[in-house]
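thought: fold this chain, then report.
action: predict
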Amino acid sequence: MTVKWKKIIDNVKEELSTFYQQGYKPTLRSIFYRLFTKGLIPNTKSAYGSLDKETVKARMDRRLSVDCFSDNSRRVIGDFNEKYIEPDAYIDQRLKSIKDIPISYNDIIPLWHNQPEYVEVWVEKEAMTSILKSLLKDKNVRILPHRGFSSLTYLYNCYQRLQTFKRQGKNIHIVYFGDFDPSGDYMIVDFKSRLKKLGLDSFEYDFQKIAVTPEQIRQYNLPFNPDGPTKVKLDRDSRTTQFIEKYGELYAVEIDALPALIPDEFKSLVTLSVDQFYDKKIYNELLEKHSPAEIRRILKEKVSHLSNIL
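observation:
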């Protein structure tokens, strides 16, 4: 296939606009899948590498915005305050926040307070976190990228956290997003096996793979045949034979393909995976209990005591 890169870059601009309208910044991988489905680029490793190089050129000469793609693989480490505020401004800021308490208090009530269910979103790939974070920005759930097979340290931290919520009497739910290929399929087995060895048996929590599934591949006609280099790699994978015996043939569908190829359906999958466990009635009862009038009454009482101290 002859690739016309000027046309490709024009299409990249169009696809970026579509993603931005949906509320999130895509990875380069997501754009790659969109171009593939439009027949503009082959689904090969070399084509992806070429797209990477050409979009870098386009970003450097400003045909594309430099920060048009999401990249979660590299982070800046720095958690400190570097903004200086004069004392008068600081006090005024705090006094305003006190005046706003009757209205703002409800905003700090955790959405999941008193909920009988506890939910975590696990995802195979770090690159997917920005998309999931955007789609779940108002859900207040933890999103955990495992970056393939988790390290024991990372999984042990997960185990400890899940045990904490289990001891609180919560029903534990893990909703999982991962590739559908021999390694991706086996990761679920690996998660459950190692959690059991750490002390959390599978009957003590609910684990649901939300995507990618064989049913989604058929329903949405997702491309699942691996390209040449990928097939060579999968043929060397010790899990491939067992995978073919289980599913009847070899599949290679990355989770990145879903937000690129079926964005609306993927958004519904993600939000419903969490919403299925949330009881809004419980939260509304808390809002009614802590009305602005009640908070204002408590505030006046506390402020009167404070004036005596000062």
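thought: worth noting. The radius of gyration is 24 Å.
final: tokens above.
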